[in-house]
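Chapter review. Work through the record for G-protein coupled receptors family 1 profile domain-containing protein before attempting the end-of-chapter questions.
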Amino acid sequence: MSMSVDRLLAVMFPVASLTWRSAKKATCVCALVWLLAFAVNYSTIIYVLTTKNNHLKTSSDKRSRAVIMAVSVLMEFVVCFAPTNGILFTTVVRLATRRQQ
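Structure tokens for G-protein coupled receptors family 1 profile domain-containing protein:
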């Protein structure tokens, strides 16, 4: 999202945005985004751990719920991030083999 905002500012205000963008500001924005993401996820985890789930009565229900969650996270990674990482990996390998020749 931060990169999208940066690109928007660069396109909308090409000259003025040159003074707005710097390495220090980018570091601050990245740190702020990471802290915000951590705060949101941490509060969600605390909420889930502290609330009682009355509909989960047996340990097998908890286990099946954990398995479903693990599989869904794995599938999200495979669908969203694996293709990009694969393309990046093949590009790096191609560049490395070209430099050796």
